[in-house]
């Protein structure tokens, strides 16, 4: 049941869009001095060596962060993202990639709190090691779907949530949306982000329909497809559904996504989506 490990996929195009959006959201949260809570429902190990046997078996990072490593274009959000990843590496060599817990830690301040959930025993142990240096980073080896509901509303009255389950269990598509809707009912001003993979487009359509029908307002969707949709096996795209997005996010992603398509496309069918799924 707990077979998914992100070490095989660290730094791939899905990580690029996920962490770009995450960085933009957390940077925006930090513009106010008031503390906030960050909740990461499916954290993984938190930090990855790209020379590891897992990463080298798939080498997915070569299609993602490696293609951006020497980026010299004009889109500042991409430049900032690459600089962020470089801060976790020595010199100019790409050898490590941070997971979402480490990306979040970069932005979290002394007054902020980080809450991290992970069920895989080996990744949980690594996550605990990677976050042990800060008391404000709390790691729990329990179900993040349920854990989120116990953390909202936060005492800070400000929250940013990332939910990115592995989707190995097909019910995760439905559970992710339902969990976010439940959390939103308890605390409707939080920034909620759901990462999703496009393996079967119908599942993503169903997620979007559920969100539209939920009554939740102000939802944006950002998607990067490095290949055209297909009925064949494998992920062709991934994206982020964002509830209560920073007001700057849509404009930023409208600049970022076409640039990423041009840089990361694997075939002529590559495309992007940047839409306001539900109005404010």
UniProtKB/TrEMBL annotation:
GO cellular component: cytosol
Catalysed transformations (reactions): adenosine(2030) in 23S rRNA + S-adenosyl-L-methionine = N(6)-methyladenosine(2030) in 23S rRNA + S-adenosyl-L-homocysteine + H(+)
The protein's name in its UniProt record: Ribosomal RNA large subunit methyltransferase J
Keyword entries, A-Z: Methyltransferase, RNA-binding, rRNA processing, S-adenosyl-L-methionine, Transferase
Residues that, per the record, bind S-adenosyl-L-methionine: 19, 42, 100, 118, 143-144, 164
Gene Ontology BP term (one): rRNA base methylation
Class in the EC hierarchy, top level: transferase
Family of the protein in this entry: Belongs to the RlmJ family.
Role summary: Specifically methylates the adenine in position 2030 of 23S rRNA.
Subunit structure and binding partners: Monomer.
Biological source species: Pseudoalteromonas piscicida
InterPro entries, per the entry: RlmJ (IPR007473), SAM-dependent_MTases_sf (IPR029063)
EC number(s) from the headed UniProt entry: 2.1.1.266
Residues of the site described as Interaction with substrate rRNA: 4
